[in-house]
């Protein structure tokens, strides 16, 4: 059976279809602080051979990391103004299997001194929220679900309405 045509090709555009996500890019005011957070707290691997440096000066302005289980690449880009603008914003929500996994993450974050929420009830499952060194939110949501319930946890800092 032939695979369905890409919407681009179907619309008369000869562009190749999108295959997936190449990498995510997060702004930071401190590459060192955010790199430490991603490698020691979230267990990403720094790929120093892919560091981004300015020609002529050699100034480091970006680093790439990889999440080994999924091969996902993340770039941390020095951009203090953008990092400040994204304080309190959750650009990505990571997935874990169960509510218990969220509790395990919460214990780990507490052990590492990372400020985080309690495990909060969402509409269909549970969520955990932590703050990275730039004040951006990092969220985990579990695949384990409960009955649809719009009576979710509200938290002034972590889940404002």
Automatic annotation (TrEMBL):
Top-level taxon in the UniProt lineage: Eukaryota
Pfam family for this entry, one: Glyoxalase
Every VOC domain range: 20-143
PROSITE patterns the record matches: VOC
Annotated protein name in UniProt: VOC domain-containing protein
